[in-house]
Task: structure prediction
Amino acid sequence: MSSTLILLRQILIMFLLMIAGYCLRKKQLLSLEGASSVSNLMLYICGPAIMILSFDTSFSYLRLQNMGIAFLFSVLITLVSIFLAKLFMSSEQTLEQFGIVFCNSGFIGLPLVQNILGTECVFYLTIYMAVFTLFVWTYGIYLISKGKTKIKLSKAFLNPAMFSVFIGFFLFCTPFTLPDIVHETFQLLGDCNTPLGMIVLGSYLANSSSVHIFTSKEGYKVSFFRLIVVPLCTVFVMMLLPMQYYDIRMTLLIANSTPVGVMLAMFSQMYAGDFEYGARIVSLSTLLSLISIPLVLSMTNILW
Result:
């Protein structure tokens, strides 16, 4: 299956789930408080389960080396994204800055990596997601709360997502593996991540007119930087890495080509921001990614 068809399928699934959340909210079957609780379930349970599973594989020194390389380049690309967001957005546009920096590497990136590069490359995507988590729980929260919540290193490492990375790394470095019943349980929890996230996003959208999704100039500006500028910068940054690390190159590029992360809407609600505006940006960038991701991947074949 081509990357375009994979992307089209994922976006169709995403919007069908969003419609379900939209209808639940309109029928008063899902309250904003309920949506917030579901968001917490995703952040504290479902997401960590996926990350632990990706580390549940046999150890090798080559994989360990590649893990370090993926980690360093993930940090570098994230810092470049932060620089771009600060350069082209004002200090007051914190939601827009968050949207440029933090992407939807899980729902869109995971199936693309699996189908284009193979399941073994999901390991590198998890390293990126670990870096993503580190920045979200520090810089991301600070940004969304407009400085009201101070950055604490304890939040960067003492949260469920990072605990899952530590547990996963332990499994990777030791002969231990998850028992089958635990593996299956984590698999089920991980499978809940996508539908729950889209249902929550749909419930957010139910609180505003859907036509506003396509009328925000700032939404298009954020989408342009998130879907075009950041991926192109990623292409050039990854050229610092020799072609023998092609799998790492492509995995990080796919991750950084994905649209604005659903966490923009979730964190906006959790920290009393404009969650409706955040949800509209997520929806617009997701639609536009149908065009941008195949375009970026095709351009990569020329530049690399």
Q: What stands out?
A: The mean pLDDT is 85.
